[in-house]
């Protein structure tokens, strides 16, 4: 899946998200098993001290200061799931914010567009004045015929690419971002912005998000405390991956992407033009191999793409 991403930062974020997905459920399962093992040990040896517990379960781990009695007996499984969900929520929000900033830097686009990439589109007088479509329009002020015909078709095949659902995906993102904001800035209370974001998200279906299962959430009354669904937060990670994949594909069509592509080519292959065969088929095959070395899928070699290479002194 990472191969069908254009920006370097998209590849990095996708890799990190995959690492987190691979970590989540095995770790949750391990915590669950540790809980009943510690409880069983204490039930069999009620006089066991904290040192006894660490000697039984912690020796060799290199971990110090673990209070297994408090973690596995005094704390409920529900409480621990809440903590686990909080860690993941903060990670996923930070990853998307990082992608927005790094993608704009890679494209040499204004950093102020980062905020717009984190909100659904606001239309005023028939124009996308704020939000994601405003950002896309700003980045894609000019499309690149070479990128549109050659690189974009392969990037668009990414299974996570969901252009028809981008507004709904960002409505979901806004809800979970408000959950994160409430936990960090409002002591876990439900603000007016939180209630509004939850109401908007509540109206969406899985089909509108383009996924099989809508990330679960716990409905909140005004003034109540925020609680999390671990399964829902893990599902939110999938939303972030879809946002990155979709926006990455949309960006690939643009002149900004063309400039980033040529810069990457020069950094990898050097400034000197590469000699290619005068035979058209052999030339196209060589270009494909050279592009794949940049970590990109095999491009479609159109006349515009080959002309770009020659005019940019990439090949001779």
Would you mind describing this structure in some detail?
The protein is mostly helical and 316 residues long. It has a domain at 255-311. The chain is 63% helix and 2% strand. The chain is built from 15 helices and two strands. It has helices at residues 8-44, 50-57, 68-74, 77-106, 113-116, 132-139, 145-150, 152-155, 166-185, 192-202, 206-209, 230-252, 255-269, 280-292, 303-311; strands at residues 122-124, 127-130. A two-stranded antiparallel ribbon has the order 1-2. β1 and β2 (127-130) form a beta hairpin. α1 packs across α3 (68-74). The longest helix is centred in the N-terminal third of the chain and has 37 residues, at 8-44. The radius of gyration is 24 Å and the shape is globular. The two termini are 32 Å apart. The mean pLDDT is 93.
Question: Care to give the gist of this entry?
Answer:
This protein is mainly alpha-helical. The chain has helices at 8-44, 50-57, 68-74, 77-106, 113-116, 132-139, 145-150, 152-155, 166-185, 192-202, 206-209, 230-252, 255-269, 280-292, 303-311, and strands spanning 122-124, 127-130.
Work out the strand percent: under 5%
Determine the structural class based on helices, strands and strand pairing: mainly alpha
Shape: globular
The helix tally amounts to 15
Which residues form runs of ≥5 with pLDDT under 50?
none
Q: What is the ordering of alpha helices and beta strands?
A: HHHHHEEHHHHHHHHHH
Major β-sheet profile: 2 strands, antiparallel
Percentage of residues assigned to helices: 55-70%
Strand order of the largest sheet: 1-2
**Gyration radius over CA:** 24 Å
Number of strands: 2
Compute the separation of the termini in Å.
32 Å
Compute the average pLDDT: 93
């Amino acid at each position: 899946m990472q191969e069908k991403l254009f920006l370097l930062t998209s590849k990095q974020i996708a890799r990190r998200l995959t690492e987190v997905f691979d970590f989540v459920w095995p770790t949750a399962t391990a915590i669950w098993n540790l809980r009943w093992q510690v409880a069983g040990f204490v039930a069999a040896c009620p006089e066991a001290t904290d040192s006894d517990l660490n000697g039984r379960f912690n020796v060799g781990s290199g971990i110090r200061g673990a209070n297994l009695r408090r973690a596995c007996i005094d704390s409920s499984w529900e409480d621990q799931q809440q903590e686990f969900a909080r860690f993941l929520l903060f990670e996923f929000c930070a990853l998307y914010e990082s992608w927005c900033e790094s993608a704009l830097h890679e494209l040499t686009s204004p950093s102020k567009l980062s905020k717009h990439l984190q909100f659904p589109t606001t239309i005023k007088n028939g124009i996308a004045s704020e939000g994601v479509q405003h950002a896309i329009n700003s980045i894609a002020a000019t499309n690149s015929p070479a990128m549109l015909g050659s690189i974009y078709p392969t990037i668009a095949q990414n299974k996570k690419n969901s252009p028809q659902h981008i507004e709904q995906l960002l409505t979901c993102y806004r809800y979970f971002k408000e959950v994160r904001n409430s936990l960090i800035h409002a002591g876990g209370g439900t603000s007016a912005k939180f209630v509004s974001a939850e109401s908007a998200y509540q109206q969406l279906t899985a089909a509108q998000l383009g996924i099989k299962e809508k990330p679960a959430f716990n409905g909140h009354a005004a003034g109540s405390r925020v609680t999390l669904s671990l399964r829902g937060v893990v599902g939110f990670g999938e939303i972030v991956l879809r946002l990155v994949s979709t926006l990455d594909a949309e960006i690939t069509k643009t002149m900004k992407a063309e400039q980033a592509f040529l810069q990457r080519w020069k950094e990898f292959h050097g400034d000197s033009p590469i000699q290619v065969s005068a035979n058209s088929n052999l030339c196209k095959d060589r270009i494909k191999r050279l592009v794949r070395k940049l970590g990109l899928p095999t491009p479609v070699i159109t006349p515009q793409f080959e002309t770009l290479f020659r005019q940019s002194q990439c090949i001779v």
